[in-house]
Amino acid sequence: MKVVWSPLALQKLGDAAEFIAADNPVAAKKWVNHLFDKTDLLGSMPEMGRMVPELLDANYREIIIGHYRIIYSVSHEIKVLTIRHCRQQLSEQEL
């Protein structure tokens, strides 16, 4: 299955990477590379992540990487919808 990133998810990824890089640029680069490696796996293992607790809909899933939730939907393709810090609440506009 194809993995597609939404513009919002890419923006959130950039924001998080900049935040991490402010303290440790090397760690930020490693985190971004790890995140892309994990999301690439979704193409062959779409149910790898757990259901998003707030939604209780099997079509919306998430994987946790460090302190961040990578939220994606499963249909005819995998769509990475957003990236949220674990302490931030998910808003419906992000879906």
TrEMBL record:
PANTHER family: TOXIN PARE1-RELATED (PTHR33755), TYPE II TOXIN-ANTITOXIN SYSTEM RELE_PARE FAMILY TOXIN (PTHR33755:SF5). This is Plasmid stabilization system protein. SUPFAM superfamilies: RelE-like. Pfam families: ParE_toxin (PF05016). Keywords: Toxin-antitoxin system. It comes from the Bacteria. Belongs to the RelE toxin family. The lineage of its organism: Bacteria, Pseudomonadati, Pseudomonadota, Gammaproteobacteria, Alteromonadales. The keyword Lipoprotein does not apply. It comes from Alishewanella aestuarii B11.
